[in-house]
Write a structure and sequence with these properties.
This is Cytosolic protein. It comes from Metabacillus indicus (Bacillus indicus). InterPro entries: YlbD_coat. It is built from 6 helices and no strands. The chain is mostly helical and about 130 residues long. It has 2 domains: about 50 residues, no CATH class; about 45 residues, no CATH class. The longest helix has 24 residues. The chain is elongated. The relative contact order is 0.05.
């Protein structure tokens, strides 16, 4: 297979788009086309003031990373502080509660199998009577 080598300016434009991620959303919304953006970038250059609104602020990027790392650290702390015996006891109690509820349903005939079984015996499609 032959590989196409892309023009160096296209590679530079791709790097520019990575630095300005809001351009992608503009194209996806249909407000801009890649060809238009490439031509503007080629003519105006990377440092033009018109590109500032498409640049993701460094503070926004850092705050997103901080939120992710903060969430992960809180999750790890919660896992470390968990008592395995206490969790096991809670699961055991929950299992017993569910079993009790299932037993109540089966005692009062509230299960799906019991209600459909009764209706089959009552409505026999071939009922014969003596004359």
């Amino acid at each position: 297979m032959t590989e196409k080598k892309e023009h160096p300016s296209i590679a530079q434009f791709k790097e520019f788009v990575k630095k300005h991620p809001k351009l992608i959303s503009e194209v996806r919304k249909g407000d801009k086309k890649w060809q238009e953006l490439f031509e503007d970038w080629y003519l105006l250059g990377e440092n033009d003031a018109s590109w500032q609104k498409y640049r993701e602020d460094a503070a926004e990027a850092e705050s997103a990373e901080d939120k992710k790392s903060d969430f992960m650290s809180r999750m790890m702390t919660a896992v470390k502080n968990m008592d395995a015996n206490q969790m096991n006891q809670h699961l055991y109690n929950m299992n017993n509660t569910i079993s009790s509820i299932q037993n109540l349903f089966s005692t009062f005939g509230l299960t799906k199998g019991a209600s459909s079984g009764q209706s089959k015996t009552q409505s026999n499609p071939f009922s014969f009577r003596k004359d």
